[in-house]
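The pair is listed for reference:
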Amino acid sequence: MPIQMNQTLDETAGELFDYIDELKVIKELFDALPVRRNIASPYLNFRDALFHYNKMYDAANKADEYRFIQQQACIEEHLNRGLKDFAIHLCNNYYIRIMHDMIKFKEKNNDKDGILKDLRVVYHGLKNLIVDIRLTGQTLQHFDNNKNTWLERMVDLIENFRNLMLKSPSLTQLYNQISRGV
């Protein structure tokens, strides 16, 4: 096996482990939700990435550079897609929907605790985050080297939302009502 291919295999294995670390962060956010939801994308994409890693390893043993590079690109695509699908699903189909309903309720019923502006900031922050995730998905960016800046932003925004609920018991009560229907 050529030395360069061996080094690339090691780097790609590191990316697989990085993916697992980042998936743990999103899964913790997902598991903290008051409702149980299932999503298979990150797991299926990880499985597919492992499948391509095995093919990449075989290509390296045969010194088949074309197939080696082809499999590496497939791995990159699966690792990028798995986390992004999961994050978009969590933000778009849960948090943004709930916050939208919360904002509408607060607007109709006068914002007595003065939290509406802060709620809107988090709401629009999540919407902008989804746009950023989708735009970076248009280009296949290399997964490793801690370039996944959107995950940290997502965690911060969700934490900001939780902090708002800690400040306002009425917001927490509203969240509990709305989240049951999502």
User: Anything to note?
Assistant: Residues 3-180 form one domain. The radius of gyration is 20 Å.
